[in-house]
């Protein structure tokens, strides 16, 4: 099995290997829990099992929709975090007794957005350090 491949065929081979290991057949599957990626849809069609949407994926989509009206502010915080994540700027924070490092947003998970906004709140008292830094927009 090619561990680098992410095709439906490779996923089905892996699934067959696991089912064999447990003495099961693909007809024993009730459903497959997955997001709506094309690979997962193809797997579901080939083994004739329905897909159940992943609750974590649906929750992530719901959070994205909920915060969409704040996307300008979120994008601004994300840009700030990227700019603060340099060696010199982190050193300046550390030299001023800040125990936090900037965290950038992970686009695939709602928790990445939460982590970034929480860190922004923790870093906020230290943003005055960058008022004269032209590359950092702290407003």
UniProtKB/TrEMBL annotation:
It comes from the Eukaryota. PANTHER family: BED-TYPE DOMAIN-CONTAINING PROTEIN. The lineage of its organism: Eukaryota, Sar, Stramenopiles, Oomycota, Peronosporomycetes. This is Uncharacterized protein.
């Amino acid at each position: 099995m090619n561990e680098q491949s992410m095709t439906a065929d490779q996923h089905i081979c892996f699934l067959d290997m696991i089912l064999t290991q447990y003495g099961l057949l693909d007809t024993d599957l009730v459903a497959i829990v997955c997001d709506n990626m094309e690979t997962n849809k193809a797997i579901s069609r080939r083994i004739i099992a329905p897909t159940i949407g992943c609750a974590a994926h649906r929750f992530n989509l719901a959070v994205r929709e909920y915060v969409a009206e704040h996307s300008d502010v979120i994008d601004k915080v994300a840009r700030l975090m990227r700019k603060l994540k340099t060696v010199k700027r982190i050193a300046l924070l550390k030299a001023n007794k800040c125990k936090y490092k900037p965290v950038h947003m992970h686009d695939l998970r709602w928790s990445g957005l939460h982590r970034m906004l929480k860190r922004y709140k923790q870093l906020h008292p230290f943003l005055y350090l960058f008022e004269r830094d032209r590359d950092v927009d702290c407003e």
